[in-house]
Amino acid sequence: MRTVLFSVFLFLNQTLFAQQHNLRGQVLSVQDHPIAGAVVKLNSLKSIVETDAKGFFMIGNIDAYNTVLEVSHVGYKTYKATILLPADSIIKIVLTDSINDLQEVQVSTGYQSLPREQLTGAFELVDNKLLNRQISTDIISRLDGLVPGVLFDKRDGGTQNFLVRGRSTLADRVSLSSPLIVVDNFPYQGDINSINPNDIENITFLKDAAAASIWGAKAGNGVLVITTKKGKYGQSNRIALTANATWVTAPDLYYQPRMSTSEFIDTEIFLYENGAYNAYLNNTTTRPPITPVVELLDSMSRGLLSEQRGYEQINHFRTRDVRKDYENYFYRNGFNQQYALNFNGGTERGHYMVAAGFDRNLEQLKENALNRISVRTNYTLRLTKQMTFDVGFAYISRRQVLNNTGEPGLSPSVTKLYPYATLADEAGNPLPIEQRYRYNYITQAGEGRLLDWTYRPLEEIYLADHVMKNQNLTANARLHYAFGKDFSAEFRYQYERQDEGEHNFRSNELFYTRDLINRYTQLDGSNVVRPIPMGGILDYGSSDMETHNGRVQLNYKKDWIDHRITAMLGGEIRQQAFSYLRNRAYGYDDDLKTSSPVDLVTRFPMFDGLGSSTSIPNEQAFGTSLSRFISLFGNTSYTYKNRYILTASIRRDASNLFGTATNNKWKPLWSTGLKWLINEESFYHSSWLPLLSLKASYGKSGNVNNSVAALTTIRYNSSPSLLARLPYATVQNPPNPDLKWENVSQWNLGLNFSTKGNRLNGSLEYYAKRSTDLLALVNADITTGFAVLNRNSGVVSNKGLDFSLTSENLMGKFNWTSNFFLSANKNKLVKLDYDQFVSASSLLLPPAKGYPLNSLFSYRFGGLDHETGDPVGFDSEGNRSVDYISLLYPQSANELVYNGSLLPQVFGGLRNDFTYKRFTLSVNITYRMNYVYRRNTIWYSMLLSPNTVVGHADYALRWQQSGDELKTTVPALMYPANSMRDQFYAESEATVEKGDHLRLQDINLRYTVNGGPRSPFNNFTFTFYANNLGILWKASKNDIDPDYTLNPPLRTYALGINLNF
Amino acid sequence: MMKYSVYIALGLCCLAGSSCSDYLDAKPDSSLALTEKLADLQAILDSEIRKNDNNPDLGDVASDYYYLSEQSWQRLTELARSTYLWQRLPSQVNSWSSSYTRIFDANVVLGAVENADVGNLREADRLRIKGEALFVRAWSFYHLAQLFALPYSEENLEKPGIPLRMTADINAPTTRATIKETYDRLLADVSETLLLLPDLPLVATRPSRAASFALLSRIYLSMRDYEQAGIYADSCLQLQSDLMDYNELDTVKTGQFQALNKEVIFHARLLFSSGVFNNNSMEVDTNLYRSYAEGDLRRPLYYKYNSGGVLGFYGDYAGYAAGPAFFGISTDEMWLTRAECRVRKGDITAGLNDLNHVLANRFKNNAFKLVGTNDQAEALALVLQERYKELAFRGGIRWPDLRRLNQEELFKRVLRRRLGSEYFELAADANQYVFLIPQVVIEQTGIVQN
Question: What is the pTM of this model?
Fold first, then answer.
């Protein structure tokens, strides 16, 4: 049933009268790599030659006209064809892999590598070519918009969170809803972003139960299997060199609409006139910071400054915008460099791969950088006919500089600066700004006997010394032994170690250190007593994680005429130990590497009574954690007459999940699947649809949530109590004897087809997932001592479709291929055993059954009141109401309006690849439909409190006089503000927007040159790549990108070069 | 070859069998523990954040020893604004939840203490730890009863008290006990601690017999059983009676009062959620301030003006710099309780001796004059006035005092507040003396609202 795909290009240049001919040619692999050492036979001549290192061969003195040429090499299908002589040009011969020919794509589950046809589950393979379409430092973000059923959730501004086939857990922690990541057969415990994407050969998504349940209790959210590059038996030595440069545009600080500086200053004046700053201005104990406009107003009212001078100053501030300073002094365009080198090759007895990579990223925050060095290597040796031995090592070292901590705040509790702050003078010199204490207090406090107490944020960036280092070492070995033809046994072991170190040295030039020293300083007559010694403060910490994985596996495979059985049985044991320590040295001298001891017990008075007596911060902490898993698993597949395939798998997991009764630790999980290759039936004769198959599967997998326990657990605090200096602990959770692991069961039905010549091929899959015993954080009676409790209480269903279609639109000189996919997901909370508190604020759990998780509910909005500009709602009887307490706490979800899902329910992409001569253009357009988001608006209660942060631009649209309610929905300003009124409007229907949009995700343009016989290289490629190019269409008129409600997407442009020798 | 696979299969079975239960019993996190050892229970009770801090401030927000300017009032949250003006809005959840969190912790300890391993502590510690937990629970019940149940009186005995949660089981239903049941429970629990606790604590963040006597005295005071209140105040003072001599303090500098000073019997702090208790917004009641005589050192030590002329409180016994925070028990309170109870009993001389002992430590040495009278009513008024002056701005005292004194014809009073041009009043028998239970609790448990 295999057909060998080959192509022969003959560039004939006939010479009529020639009698003796030379035949020259080059033997290449499908990937265009030259094959060295291939045996070339010309039967008429009975001559045998071998190809050279670049795959070239030459046979001279041929006189026959019709000659059968045979090219063979281990690991490749033998090529046989009749050559018409004379052939003066170089003929190209492409050999296909004997194991992996194109039709027989091997899919790795992490336990087995199986041909795609034999699988009954839902797999999605992202091959090397597709992975390399994008240029990035990490691997995960390359998968966005490419894989059916895989949805990236970018609501929190990250690029790493994704869901496979909908959300199937109620846990709000990302780590509990994201899929299991497996790298080269074992779960990867380190930071996945540290892996060099150039080392990766392909990625497989295991989406349904038949695919994923072999991973058991951790497979409930799907599994992502990453396979790194390997050499091949009998393949010539190859060298690949990659260099990429990526420009990341600086962040758009004007993305979030914000009220103008002038409006903000008017608000400050308003608050000042209402006496809101009195408590701050007159505070002679804790001396809170006062913004410059308020200081000017105060000076004017106390007659220290003329009105004219004061308002001149204030009007000057009105023209300022601190974002300009941030743009100039804090941010830049990011620039990422990436270099990678890969050697691989093999003989009949073994193969090898050595890869090295270097990345250097200059982050958008000035001075911050990331360096990464990675080395990865693996060797496979066929020791005897029965025994194969593999060994692999990977080492990754990352160094991150975090000197720029980003936009400063006014005080520890106010995280932003007022909008007219001035960070630098005209010449760019750093200027001090208000910080923590009132500026005119700190400039005179201590009469010169304290350290400088002013804060100059720009200076800090260049004085900081904050570095994080991370090293990851992975070593693995595999011994495979074949007992005759049918049986084989496999032992695998992997060791992974990750060390992380942090070094944050703050010399006493930095505000943090100066401020801390000053706060503890006591001026006693002429003595200056400093409980915190002069010098810097060094925070240092390290952590190490060590994982051992062991696996024993028995494989059985037997073929009869009509039957084939493959089976696998194994056991696995796994331990992950983690420990960390953190500490701080005071009075640290970075040159001498010395520090001074301090008294961490005594409560010292604060300078000038600025605060309560406190002991010196103790930053010492230690901790360890240990998790252990034992698993048993088995998998079998039976094929009858090459057309009916039945698969089954089972797995049991046990772990040392804290406090769980042992009987609950062992959880059996299983799956079964069926496939029918219709086109293999004798009655099937369709010539236009030569490939047609149906499949179905059902099974169960689990989800482990380590954060809850069945018995009452307490957590010891790392430092002693504040006053008594005694060790203390906090109760983590109440006893929960009913605790269970989460269960995910899933149906999958699939159809695969391909038309004649593979012009159109695709698949359609339908799934129905039901997650039960979900641990939900449900509202509890606070009288129990807990406001929320984690309980196995939820049932969630996910139903959906994944459809993908690949079409070869044009073939020939101009080649055009389209890849289209569409995924639909309907998520629903089916059951929740506990009453849900009804409010529009809950973003994960809907307030009622029958709605999706991540639903958006709103308060019914009745416009603004004609007289007052108050937002109006509707009470339970449907009457108009401004009683915000009862509006915010409705009796039932019926009183709220359901707006839709916060996650797209329909999404997909259309990728078009065009090839013309040496150029390839690939354009990916993605779409996300059927969802909503909530836009931000003005919160007066936040704006109208002293020392606040600048409010939303909706301020300008507010109701100001009767009649405005016809033009705007933004409520009138009200003082004193009512936070419930703000919340009611902010969570009402008025702020809901549709998210549906169409996006030009990225463009990739390539120029490929194939080397000739005399060329030193085999081929090289130039790439231009641009990502996040913009929205082509969206349903909402709001300017915010529906997928990036916090920060705008980062647009990147990259240039790359790839050389293959 | 079949032989090998049998061996391997056997090996796998062993892996899954006996040895793995030990393997899987390993503790997953070094900072996590079960409530198995006495030391673990002690550690729960030594959490200052949960045990000593976050005592309910509702009653103090509604008390009369301070006032807010309109500007300061405007900066508060709606619920704090309404509490200040005695408008009955469903109160903030924090006062309720932080108390029941403390009660949960105590119940965890009480549920485990009998069977816990001694570990590296001693058997005697088991009794002490049980006593501490009983104290903490009773302490919380007492304060909840002062906020969410009617004052103790004969006619109110069968009215709803507070939910008495006696178990850490989160599935146990929440119901309201009667007022009689509430106070019976309080007295029984605190009395039991007298057999378990040491006379004086290792550190005043932990309860002691002295603290238990003081708490019993407070409970009887709120029940207006002045006989018993006086006896227990006296028992407390037998163990701890030291007073600071304010003459030794500096009246100019701030920061004169430290946490855990020698007057502190039990250290506790109030919740800061209302945002009221800040020296630069909250101002001392003018009449209260005027009532301190010349030479009374409490005037300069407790009260100072900031640069805007706002008179704030700087005499905090928790050592807090920015306002009042202390919510615990101190010896001066017990001296004044004993004084009141002695006077009420008719022992005017002994009562005034107690009062004079306190005042001698509060007045400038050269300015102090003994107070004296033979008239019981006059003496009582004098003691109550000094009690107000001494204990204003100590959390958890003024509100119960108002509730009990309003039941006495002689001392009942109407509280008044002015906000801008508006006036607000709280009558002595007003239902605002019982706060509304948070709406979420009513919705989730169905217990009756006040």
Answer: 0.83
